[in-house]
Amino acid sequence: xxxxxxxxxxxxxxxxxxxxxxxxxxxxxxxxxxxxxxxxxxxxxxxxxxxxxxxxxxxxxxxxxxxxxxxxxxxxxxxxxxxxxxxxxxxxxxxxxxxxxxxxxxxxxxxxxxxxxxxxxxxx
Length: 124
Hints:
The protein contains 2 helices and 6 strands; from the N terminus they run ααββββββ. The protein has helices at 3-14, 16-30; strands at 46-49, 59-63, 72-83, 90-95, 103-107, 111-116. α1 packs antiparallel against α2.
């Protein structure tokens, strides 16, 4: 039990009507998402690591091809393989966090490695 529920129980013991009123208000406020006593839902924090080489299994953001409008293809992607060598090298990626499997091929130079919160990033 939290400290607040203990205090409500004490108030109920001294004054039943007051304790029940406090408990009703507490339930109404705690059911709201943005109330300060609850943790708000949020997207996991992440950081881009543009200088890090891309490897198989890495989480990446896919930038749109150079010269196109827009900044990036939405979502996080996982690298599942590579094809070719040199400037024409491509990577096969699949989208993370969707029910349907979505795969695409992206230019190797358009990938930026992403490290999410709780995953260690080791500087070199």
